[in-house]
Amino acid sequence: MASLMPSSTSMALLHNVPKFVHLFVSAFVFLTVIRLYLFPLLTSSAFSWRPSAPAPPPLPPPPAPGAVVMAGKEYSSKCDISKGKWVPNPNAPYYTNDTCWAIHEHHNCLKYGRPDDGFMRWRWRPDGCDLPVFNPAQFLELVRHKSLAFVGDSVGRNHMQSLLCLLLRATYAVDASPVQDENFRRYRFPSHNFTVASFWSPFLVRAQEADDDDPSGLLNLYLDEPDTSWSREIAQFDYVIISAGQPFLRPTMFYENRRLVGCHYCRSPNVTDLTKYYGYRMAFHTALRVFTDDLRGFGGTVFLRTYSPTHFEGGEWDRGGDCVRRRPFRRDEARLDEVAFQMYMTQMEEFRAAEREGRKKSVKLRLLDTTEAMLLRGDGHPGRYGHVAGANVSMYNDCVHWCLPGPIDTWNDFLLHTMKNEGRRLATRRRPGNERKPS
Q1: Strands, DSSP E only, in 59-129?
Q2: GO cellular component annotations, sorted alphabetically (predicted)?
Q3: Count of H-run helices and E-run strands, the chain
Q4: For residue 262, what are the β-bridge partners?
């Protein structure tokens, strides 16, 4: 058996090696061992997503604690970020369906086999200015010690999940929900003492089934009564995003002062069909008045996020309609249909009226006008890739909600832009000689 002890000749050779060589080799071995011990994930592929998806790009450095984050030249308030076009973004996506636990199953398009991933690799470029991609570190600094609520339907919840995924790149969140109900969730980010919540209120006002045995699903809407599931708690939030859309297309009975005043598609004799637009208008009128009239001294900021278009082609949602686009439309390739246009204009009119009223009472109302941007993104819906093939679901081809990651992430670009412009307004107002009433 060969001896394991070094020979006298070997020992002599080792003694003749200069000391600096010994030191160099020892340092190299020590650093290699330490790297493997402290940073094993650097050499592991356990957290890779898929070969075709690059790792999310590194985060930019966060602002200094307590710094005022506000808009620079690229954030000029004179720039209309609602008008523009989609341009390629090779750096996207900024999270994946493996790195974000907040993605709802029905929006997890890659999990359910969507074969393409180009829908994730675009960003919105407004006409005449730039709109930087959402920076989670900046956002978190802006909302330190604050709270944000989403009030609306499942598309609003879709937006909240997008925001969560982007913020989870920078820190972690804990479930702070008072009840275990998917429709009413709260998440807290301990690193910044920031809370984000969702309030399920698809009609914004009080709603109840007209008749449990009615197969048409006729609904009673009390158009002058805000839904207390959100209105009783909303005063505690610093930021509120209100939105609503497709649920208003269903048959409804309209009540004001607890009296029946009309309906939408109820087909009832002696009941005036006031159309869905009347119900939509009154619901936003009532919801926005919660902040301008009902909550005295509300000091937060209310954002109205505009109508999110659908993209069913070849039929309605329940008659074989599908969304099969694989790239964004150009601006000259898409137009809002009559329903989407009327819903959008109704929102804008009610927002402008509430904004004027709020200005008198120092209530800040701001607009997230995402409609045109999303009109061009018929490629961004789950379609048939929001569930397993053959699943028994109410909407087999989902052309209403948005894949995550996907174009809905841009809504957070809009949100951060608007919040930074708000910071610029406040900073300007605080300068000596620039005192003005809040607007």
Answers
A1: 84-88, 122-126
A2: Golgi membrane
A3: 9, 13
A4: 254
Q: Which of 106, 107, 154, 322 is catalytic?
A: 154
pLDDT in tens, 292-310: 999 887 899 999 999 999 9
> How many C-beta atoms lie closer than 10 Å to residue 311's C-beta?
22
- Phi/psi for 252 (5° steps) reads -145, 150
So what's the pLDDT on residue 33?
39
Biggest alpha carbon distance in the chain?
A: 113
**Catalytic-residue membership of 154:** yes
φ, ψ for residue 305 (rounded to 5)? Answer: -95, 125
- Average pLDDT score over residue span 95-104: 95
pLDDT in tens, 6-32: 444 444 434 444 554 445 445 544 444
| Cβ contact 111:408 at 8 Å | no
Alpha helices in 322-430 (DSSP H): 338-360, 371-375, 410-430
Spatial separation of the C-alpha atoms in residues 290 and 230, rounded to whole Å: 10
127 is catalytic: no
Query: Which one of the listed residues 107, 192, 264, 401 is annotated catalytic?
Result: 401
Give me the long-range contacts of 261-269 (CB less than 8 A, separation at least 24).
261/223, 266/218
Q: How far apart are CA 122 and CA 377, in angstroms?
A: 10
- Please confirm, yes or no, whether 211 is among the known catalytic residues: no
